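Assemble and predict.
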Amino acid sequence: MKAIILFGHGARDPRWREPFDRLATLWRDQHARTLVEVAFLEIMKPSLCDAVTSLTIQGVTQITVVPIFFGQGSHLRNDFPKLLEACREKFPKIILSATHAVGEDLAVLQAIIDFSAKVP
Amino acid sequence: MKAIILFGHGARDPRWREPFDRLATLWRDQHARTLVEVAFLEIMKPSLCDAVTSLTIQGVTQITVVPIFFGQGSHLRNDFPKLLEACREKFPKIILSATHAVGEDLAVLQAIIDFSAKVP
């Protein structure tokens, strides 16, 4: 069974995670056969490895992590690969991969342009 | 003359800003009549007020700031309104408004879902 993890930065204000929960709901509505979890780099729970643990308990064997970040800075270039490697060591039988940050995707950027163009 | 400012968090790694520069290029290609600048909350330049200054010099009288953030946490709920107010005090003749964070927009979230669904 496959799953994706929507991976964000995390913040102190609990309302910060609302778009992430909305993304997970959209995913479940549209892609019910592939499980989804959210996970956060810092401050918020669950951590990436906690989300992987939760998915493996549900029988998932293949997980793709989607970084919900605009830019690819130190968090994604340095912290994230280390976290991913730590999860791989903990779950050697799970196929764990990652996409680019969503901010690298032209269609995501175009949706932001279209949103900005709706400005009065 | 109108303008928009694409307002992001900022980061130490200069490559972090690439999606912001790409957004500005897309905007210029598609909406040439409305000027665009990027601006950052911290670490990166220009600041919000510096971007407003640059636009006023070019004759802009109406500016909308688009926060390129997913979640609305302390940065957008506390820091950003104060920054916006400081810019308004500095430029009382400029009409300065702001949209919600782009992560609040359903079409942006859907584009992220579609990107995630392209995962092999």
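The beta strands of chain A are 2-8, 35-40, 62-67, 95-98.
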